Amino acid sequence: LAGTRIIYDRKFLLECKNSPVARTPPCCLPQIPGVTSPAQPSLVKLGELKEQNESEETLPGEQPYNPRQ
Which residues form the signal peptide (predicted)? Predict the structure, then answer.
């Protein structure tokens, strides 16, 4: 059995690129950060970074480490 082959010309395909339908993601597309949606750091990592920054803060009267001195 031979099927029907659909052939699109270049002009039609270039016009489809600017179609509003082509700019709308499918309704059932999964939300995968960094793939189908912008990358967002997880809340767990943000909490870890906050704890790390707080532990690196200097105490009053203590000189911060400066490798250029």
Answer: none
| CA–CA distance, 25 with 9 (Å, rounded to integer) | 24
CA distance 13 to 7: 10
Longest dimension (CA), the chain: 86
What's the one-letter identity of residue 36?
T
* pLDDT value for 65: 63
| Predicted model pTM | 0.33
